[in-house]
Amino acid sequence: MQHELRSVDVAIGLGSHDLGVAAHSAELYRSELFPTLVFTGGNSPTTAQVFPRGEAVHFREHAIDLGVPAEAILLEPNAGNTGQNITLSREVLVAAGITPASVLLVSKPSMERRSFATARKLWPDVEILCASEPLEFDDYLKSIGDEKLVLDMLVGDLQRVIEYPKLGFAIEQEVPEDVHAAYESLIRDGFTSRLINP
């Protein structure tokens, strides 16, 4: 999304297979961009073996290891999709007495646009900014260590950007023709394990 980052009321680290989300959230916390950090996410088929106690739990532990004080982190350990990440994180914040006017969503790079579109739909009265670990694509592939998984995730994320507005889950996002063509090509090449049935 290339949002210009600035101070916000709270950040939400969205669960996934990418521990870089926790590391980048910790870095942004240390830069004093927000006082409170929520980690959200249960498990998915992609993450169950890597994060057996749940994405949010492992992300929280990693952030604490990187210097974020435990008391600055709220935990939402049940979400199974992006809509639940937003909705259940809001509930955790309400329970903590926090009503933010601005929120920074920290995600894996390919998930920024989808998380933004989802949050704008489900939380329209809050200003939403997005961030992810600033890595070049080749470096990101190396950091994850599984090229097929990354490409499957890219295809799945883009499909959700395209299809979820029709289902009422997200706001519309423009998809350039060349991006759409690359998406169709990747599907033809078999990068389909993260596709949903639209």
What does this protein structure show overall?
A 5-stranded parallel β-sheet has the order 3-2-1-4-5, sandwiched between helices. The chain is globular and about 45 Å long. It has 198 residues and is an alpha/beta fold. It starts with 9 loop residues before the first strand and ends in a 10-residue tail after the last helix. It contains 7 helices and 5 strands, in the order E-H-E-H-E-H-E-H-E-H-H-H. It has helices spanning 20-30, 55-65, 82-95, 112-122, 137-144, 147-167, 177-188; strands at residues 10-14, 37-40, 73-76, 102-107, 127-132. Helix 3 (82-95) crosses helix 4 and helix 4 (112-122) runs parallel beside helix 6.
How would you concisely characterize the structure shown here?
The chain has 198 residues and is α/β, with parallel strands linked by helices. It has helices at 20-30, 55-65, 82-95, 112-122, 137-144, 147-167, 177-188, and strands at 10-14, 37-40, 73-76, 102-107, 127-132.
By DSSP (H or I, 4+ residues per run), the number of helices equals 7
What's the gyration radius in Å?
A: 16 Å
Shape label: globular
Ranges where pLDDT stays below 50 over 5 or more residues in a row are: none
The biggest beta sheet reads: 5 strands, parallel
Sequence of secondary-structure elements: EHEHEHEHEHHH
- Going by helix content, strand content and strand pairing, the class is alpha/beta
Strand content: 5-15%
Strand count: 5
Read across the widest sheet, the strand sequence of neighbours is 3-2-1-4-5
Helix content: 40-55%
Pfam families: DUF218
Domain DUF218: 21-122
Protein name: YdcF family protein
